[in-house]
Amino acid sequence: MLSFDSALSDSLKLSNTTSFWVLKLYYNDETNFIGVSEQDRQDGSDMYYGLVSSWGAYSQSLDFFNFTTSVGNMSVRLINTDMSFKGGRFSDDFATNNYANRKWELFQNTSGTSTYDTSARMIASGIISGDIKYDQHSISLTLLDKGSTYHKQLPTNVVDSTTYPNAPEKNIGKPIPMAYGDFHEDTFDGTLPTSHFDKYKYFYLGAFPAIVTNKWDTGSETQEASLDSVALHTIDDENIYFYKDGYYPTFTGTISSSNNPIVQYQGSGASVYIPLTNEGQGSATGDGNVTQPQRLVDRDFDLPTSWSTNYGKEKSVTLPYSVPLVNKLGKYTGISIITRWGTSNLGVADNGSFTWETAYGNASDGNIPSDTISKNNISSLFENTDSWEFEGNIDFELSNGSDFGGFSVAAYEAGLVIDFDIEDIESHKVQELYEATFVGGISLNAQFGAESEGFSTTRILTRTKTILTPSEIDYIYFSGKGRKYGTWINSRSTGYNTTLAIENPIFIIEEILRTELGLSSATIDESTFNTSGQQTGGYLGDIYDDDTDDVKFAFSQYKFINSKDLINRICKQILSWVYISGDGKFKIKTLKRSYSSSDSDKTIDYTDINLKSISKTSLGGVRNDISINYNHDYGQDQFLSNVNPTADATSEGTGVDGYNQTLKLEMDADTLDSTTATQLADAYQTIFKDRKIIIDFDCKRPKYNDLEIGDIIDFSNWDSKIKLYGTAMSGYFLISSIQKRVDGCSIKVIKV
After folding, report:
1. Mean pLDDT for the chain?
2. What would the mean pLDDT of 716-745 be, rounded to a whole number?
3. What's the burial of 95, exposed, middle or buried (CB within 10 Å: 0-12/13-18/19+)?
4. Where are the strands (E) in 446-601, listed by range?
5. pLDDT per position as a tens digit, 512-540
6. Most buried among 172, 598, 648, 740, using CB within 10 Å?
7. Is the pLDDT of residue 266 over 80?
8. 275-419 belongs to which CATH class?
9. Domain edges within the chain
10. 263 SS3 class
11. Global pTM?
């Protein structure tokens, strides 16, 4: 809601007050303006010419189902007769002044106020459309909001030949990605070891693309890739990968991230971690016991698998695992097994051993100190290593040997590491690097169709065979944490600060506005972003039915997309609307699951309105079966995970509250987090499983012209004889559209 000053608010409450508008039309460099109104008005040194023959309504609207907003706009007709303006016509002024694409500002005033153009009385602003039409009698102006001047193609930074003269030719003109959120360690309850295991993508939340910007640096004999155009929160030197055949092998050459957000890497060496599995392999056999066999391959590093043998010579216990099929990724150079051991009593002086065995051989370790990490060469266990024929069974055996034993060994995680040299990077198809939102008419598909990820055309990107270094890779990948909060978050009591990576989607939007669109606090309504996104009590947590801090987004924007489309895409996932307010600032409004009196922006008196209609939202807007795709894999360019909570039985059913149909919605989400995806599905089902009541009415007086889309209202003095589908008036309503006039407004609200 706009914040009218008390003098204006008090004056608008009086029934005998005359309301009027004044409009400032700026020209040329926007340091000067022409003021107009429906009659000549002098306000200090400002003159408002009485040229307005008719005011159009200033309109704002939001799409409740798609979480988008329309461009705020209005039209105004000015008198253009001879001698009506400075001894001539207003159109004659076009010879010396250009109004097209210049600023305009509209102010609400009354006969009981003065100083017309204060910020507390501005109800709309924007740019003047270049579509200016006139004749000898009148001139028509179309006034738009400033969205078109703010929004632009993102990412704004590209690989250009001047800045990156040695970039691969195919990368010239491609966007430098924008990385958000935490895609770093994924170790559940345990702690990822700081040796061996910490090199591999398997133990990380995600791998985000970095575009190669220098295919060979002759000074350092390295390659370079840009992860983003701004410094990121966390970049691990070791976690730099390339993608091939569903795997993310780790570069093992010299790696540096000292030039954040640039990483450097060299050499042809790489390694890949291959998890083992006990599924379908049966239980332990022998003289002893094995507990929790699946724990060995769960990436948890918290609860171990334990082997223990019975007392006596030659006693042993064996648990079988299997090695999956691995496509050949390069020239084989070695294979090892790495293990994070727990408590062990198998020492160097003992005759016992822990052995890994296949049909081709075995490898043993007789000295396993507690709480250590080992790397054992097991090349002897495989016959056709050059052909990468590793699939088959591998037995894990603890043996007493010639000792009487009674040995025990625990292991938290174990897997194979295959070392190889990169021979070539195979060609594969990728989508054109553009995203777009295609807007159609209001229909089932338009409201809930799958989100487009760009044009359907594809092209082949060839890769060059390399010997020493993969010099023609378009993208490499990395694990880390994305952009950090800027100093703009300080002193706002949101619970966040500049030491943190931005995971909260509300503030991801604000960061886009600031960093990519160049906006400042002067054009961002920080209070609305605080209300939606603050760590404690934020509306985002309410709509997700979770702590706000637990709503975690993580994604890379590596394709071109219009900033408005990107913001709308995020809004759709957080049930929010971003729009330019009448005061010229970007605001955000986030839906809640339930409202109370403290949430109401204004109470509308029934005696002040003309009721036009009561209706319900379309049945096509109902969704009672929600499916969320998440955990996007950028190498495969597809989502790997999905959640689909149980459909709402009441909404599906044949009762009075049912619709006798399962109505599905599938959505892609910018998160790697299963909890966030699950709660998003729950939020959509909670909100959209029912039709909503709509009330359409006119306000007979301008006392409500400070309201805007997204505001919450309730009613007083409602006619008790007029019920809402048989129920007495109660509850709170969200403004979905408003048309403001000099003498009042028309409002449409949806019950929330």
Report:
1. 90
2. 97
3. exposed
4. 458-461, 475-483, 555-557, 561-562, 576-580, 586-590
5. 999 999 999 999 999 999 999 999 999 99
6. 740
7. yes
8. mainly beta
9. 6-149, 156-268+463-480, 275-419, 484-591, 607-617+692-751
10. strand
11. 0.92
